[in-house]
Specification:
about 80 residues, 3-stranded antiparallel β-sheet, 3 helices
């Protein structure tokens, strides 16, 4: 974990607003066709929710902004993503 200067990031304005939010969170809505994921779930007897979480985590790990969180009015960059269930 290391401190990042928020003004030097691509999304400096968004981070300035985010830093002052009482509970900073990210919510994303996207319509997806999960037909293939359902087929894989049924074919290999995997839980659909487990596969969906894996896909979301894999996609999020490729977005650098998800590694950054405000801590005590500082922007910190983490080495790994933290996943909540």
């Amino acid at each position: 974990m290391k401190e990042i200067d928020a003004n030097q990031t691509k999304r400096a304005e968004a981070f300035a607003l985010w830093m002052n939010a009482p509970m900073p969170m990210v919510t994303i809505f996207k319509t997806l066709d999960v037909t293939n994921l359902v087929r894989v779930s049924q074919r290999y007897h995997y839980k659909f929710n487990m596969l969906m979480c894996w896909c979301i985590g894999r996609a999020a790990s490729q977005v650098e902004e998800f590694y950054r969180l405000p801590v005590d009015k500082k922007l910190m960059q983490y080495d790994r993503l933290g996943v909540n269930e």
